[in-house]
Amino acid sequence: MYSDERRGDGSRGTGEDEVRFNVLGPLEVLRDGVDHAPKTPKVLQLLAVLVTRPGRMVHIDTLIQELWSDNPPRTVRTTLHTYVYHLRRCITDQHLAEDADKMLTTRQSGYALHIEPAQVDVHDFAVFQHLGNSRRAAGDHAGAAGSYRSALDLWSGAPLANLHCGPVLSAYCTELVEQRRNILHLRIEAEIAGGHHRELIGELRGLATHSPLDEALHGQLMRALGRSGRRSDAMTVYRGLRSRLAGELGVEPCDELQLLHRDLISEGDHR
User: Fold this and answer.
1) How many CA atoms lie within 13 A of 228 on its CB side?
2) What band does 18 get if pLDDT is binned at 50, 70 and 90?
């Protein structure tokens, strides 16, 4: 519906000799379009924690918690040092930096991966999100929807989909998924406000089917249907959601949905 926005350093591709890190999907380490991520699961998991905190020191205790949770081996620090050694070897062998020791530094209480935040796709996601929010506040619905769509286009799957996440990365991924859900909601709101309600009905039906108890999505579907002259279909959506909420959770739809339902009835009464 909207053309993609592009930034010089903001796509999932890479510039010449630039190393990019993608976490909005499988963890990837891209140089010249080729993925050079380590294959060993624990080394990949270690890299993921460091990538999520670019340029910042990550405490050894945080890494131990992520890699072994509550069951670390007796030789946990020696084992961690070994994984760091293998990660540095990967940096060297894959030519990801001129000096692996400078890219991945050891400090007294932890390790730091010296990369710029802009090398990670999450940075671009945040940039597009901020741009969308600014355009939405200015009343530019089409521009806001385009920015939100560009943010969502960065995703290729579940975050860090190719590794086992411990407690640290699981919390990080949960936050990312919630941010994506919010951006999706804002993108749909912007498109409805911009008059694209008819085009959204198919997508919203699919999303509502996938999330049968999501009241926000069902409300957006009801509004898109109502604005498209399909009031009876919108009321059918409401009745179906109300039945599921009562049967599975023992609750009524939220006040906003009840008001929307009453508005749909009122519109019919005034025709």
Assistant:
1) 18
2) confident
Backbone φ and ψ for 21, nearest 5 degrees, come out as: -125, 125
Question: CA–CA separation, 213 vs 220, rounded Å?
Answer: 13
**Parallel, antiparallel, or unpaired for β 110-113 and 57-59?**
antiparallel
Q: pTM of the prediction?
A: 0.88
Return the structure tokens found at 35. Answer: 């993925």
pLDDT bucket at 70, cuts 50 / 70 / 90: confident
* pLDDT tens-digit map of 144-194: 999 999 999 999 999 999 999 999 999 999 999 999 999 999 999 999 999
**In angstroms, how far is CA 116 from the centroid of its own chain?**
19
Beta strands in 33-119 (DSSP E): 34-35, 57-59, 104-107, 110-113
The angle, 0 to 180 degrees and rounded to 10, between the axes of the packed helices 215-227 and 167-193 is 20
Is 124:20 a contact under the CB 8 Å cutoff?
no
CA distances from 110 to 28, 167, 178, 186, 255 (A): 23, 18, 29, 39, 49
